[in-house]
Amino acid sequence: MGPRLDLSRLPSVRTLRPTDQAFVCGSSPPGPSSADDARPRLVRVTSTYVHGHHSSVLDSHGARTAANSAAYLLPHLRAGMRLLDLGCGPGTITLDLAGTVGTDGRVVGVDSAEAALDAARRAAAERGDTTTVFQVGDAYALPFEDDSFDVAHAHQVMQHLANPVAALRELVRVVRPGGLVAFRDADYGSMSWHPGSDGLDRWLETYRRTARLAGGEPDAARHVLAWARAAGLTQIEPSTSTWSYATPDERAWWGGQWVERARHSAFATQAVDAGLATAADLEDFATAWAAWSQDPDAWFAMVHGEVVARVPER
Ligand SMILES: C[S@@+](CC[C@H](N)C(=O)[O-])C[C@H]1O[C@@H](n2cnc3c(N)ncnc32)[C@H](O)[C@@H]1O
Hints:
Layout: E1 23-26, E2 41-44, H1 55-61, H2 66-69, E3 82-86, H3 92-101, E4 106-111, H4 114-127, E5 133-136, E6 149-155, H5 164-174, E7 175-186, E8 192-194, H6 198-213, H7 224-230, E9 234-245, H8 248-264, H9 266-273, H10 279-294, E10 299-310
Parallel strand pairs: 3-4, 3-6, 4-5, 6-7
Antiparallel strand pairs: 1-2, 7-10, 8-10, 9-10
Helix pairs in contact: 1-8, 6-10, 8-9, 8-10
The structure holds S-adenosylmethionine (SAM).
S-adenosylmethionine binds next to loops.
């Protein structure tokens, strides 16, 4: 089952340039903080977030819930936990996780992009959540003291980072010994669909090449165990789970947002800028997605790799 569909969230068309910055300035957190955090930080972001934050991307991510994207973590959560959601995007998963740890818990969503954080704050306001904090920060230099959290979570973030192991080590640093680090990433190389189409084959290849050029690893699911081990995590529980799109509503939503993303997202801009696609190719991809979404036999599956693991004693 893929992310829950809300057809009112179907993307509107708006042309934006990618907002990802080469550098981000970390700010002091209202949550766990130290005097150290008051110092301005200049943090290098070595990869470019390939999807960007066009409304088609944020709307797509906004359909995610803890149930459809973090089910492997939920049995480990308890009321009162302090939880960090790294790369929280528009925050819908973060806010669900906040509901799980309750009002005695503390949840902070961190993202390098203000556009995503603005969407997350709007989502919090819509839900009447006044306690979850959304703040800017970088995966490689989090603005928190050591041992600030019981749990760190990251959904579809490591796949976009040039050095996911360094980012995981940073999560290990900010989680107390014995606490949890949990992350889940997609695997574009093992996506499967029906019916086959040249346009979708070329879309996938172009996406994977663009993501790699941006510094990421689009076939991340198969690496999650290796990354967790390299980061020094222990008691690692690896698993997989799948999003699928096969009902008429699911097809219309998944295919529809990719029509928009092929035309308007940062992926489209970066693919053209890098010479990996022409404007005509992008239109072919959009046409292929539109045809797929309207085919009553159409089917799509996307495997994720996920890990929940313990931070060792220091
Ligand atoms: C695919 S989105 C996932 C968003 C959210 N976790 C979800 O699943 O809905 C990846 C997010 O990671 C953020 N991101 C990318 N690089 C980052 C970095 N170095 N530090 C913090 N956030 C980063 C992006 O801005 C984006 O919002």
